[in-house]
Give the backbone structure.
Amino acid sequence: MTVHRELSRAHDVDVVETNRRGHAIRFAQDAARRELDAVIAFGGDGTLNEVATGVAGSGTALGVLPGGSTNVFARTIGMPNDPVAAVWPLMAGLRANDLRPIGLGRVNGRYFCFHTGVGFDAAVVAAVERHASLKRWFGHPLFIWAGLTTWWRGYDRSRPQFTLRADDGRTCDEGRFTVVLNTNPYTYLGNRALDVAPSAGLSNALVAVTFTDLQVMTLIRALGSSLRGGGLAAADGVLEWSAVKGLTIETIGDRGVPFQVDGDHLGDVASLRFEHVPNAVRLVWPGQV
């Protein structure tokens, strides 16, 4: 494997393959207990999330190599979307020992690198995961199809689904879809970034963007402004909170609300507790080649 061969030129490298959800967390935790220098997450955003969760709070650094279809976090920090091309800036960062402490979000005890989605977008991710075998071949078209079918008949748009309470006193009682961001952009459509909240960043507290309605025009305006760049334009039906250090989301009624973490659907819950964790991990920053 080209990536393994190149990394092994200057480092002792052990390759561990994961085969189920949660596997990478345990491997990364073991590496941290053994005080290894770094764990390189080679895979999609879900694998990266698990490795970050496993090494958070330890002295073991986190490295990133993209291996999935979108690789939001890797692209956000300037990595190429191709693993062979990305190995060179990763090696440059390792040579320079450029290990930068970064903040992460945490929800119900689970860390996230770039965002957590609550409500509508989590229902879309769940729909995509029901067709996981198609994701590698039809990545973005599959997400678009899942988004349209979920909006049309897979998610209750008729009423608010949850309430939000920030620790600083800000409140919202009409949540239908919220994304809590640790970085920006929210995701990519091909090579186009969905620029939702420019104030989100690895050295800042979290940003929460909430849709209080899911009407077609609200979503179209949001998509258009995010594709143009500069963040979401101010509009009715969209609420943005920056500098969020703590946030609680609770469902309205007896039904739970779906949530996803860094692109992995984690089920339906009655409540979610968000925190910003400064200096949670040391990231191997990509260097100049």
About this structure: The radius of gyration is 19 Å. Residues 131 and 142 are 9 Å apart (CA to CA). Residues 2-107+280-284 form a domain with the Rossmann fold fold (CATH 3.40.50.10330). The chain has two domains: 2-107+280-284, 112-276.
